[in-house]
Amino acid sequence: MTTLLSADELEARLRDVGTRRYHNLHPFHRLLHDGKLDLGQVQAWALNRYYYQAMIPVKDSSILARMDEPELRRVWRQRIIDHDGHHEGEGGIARWLKLTDGLGLDRHAVTSLRNLLPATRFAVDAYVHFVREKSLLEAIASSLTEMFSPGIIGERVAGMLKNYDFVSRETLAYFENRLTEAPRDADFALDYVKRHARTPEQQEAAIRALEFKCDVLWVQLDALYFAYVDPKMAYPGAFAPKETR
Length: 245
Description:
Heme Oxygenase, Chain A, globular, Thiaminase-2/PQQC, pyrroloquinoline-quinone synthase activity
């Protein structure tokens, strides 16, 4: 990029990333939402996705520690509270564990992380390293996948409730909270990026950061697809479903 975009043009470019690269387009999500997976495959998704959920506060803590302005820190720390809660049993991570509990997974097996696919671990760790090593602008821009999440959440909840008798609104409670949290967070991050990406180079860096985050989400689904759908080649030591239905 050699030409400075207006704020509206930059936003349009960022939203176009989601249109082309967000993981709602992945074949695994189509199968998940359309009721084409069995219980074991849904368990594998929830168990592996737990690591991503659990590392969100770690990622956000890294960003928080790099913010010099108290007003920025006051806003960003809400993300950590949303996932960790104020007390034991609260927050998004606890709600995700209600999902894995409801799917019949042993909680220690989930939280121990011993049965993760290697690609899950590598992708999530790469995201944490990205926000630590890149500029604050890039770190914040990478969170802008939240602009696209309400759509996929609505589709996921409706599709899973319709197609799977082993889930309920209670076990899917994590997603209900994200319908209000994600737009709030995305609005703040988008405003920050539009105000602080002041050169063509900074604007391109912000766009590339969002593309990277889309890659992080996409590759996790690649791993699930090839391990549990086609050709079902789960890595030794990874989660092995005990039953299907």
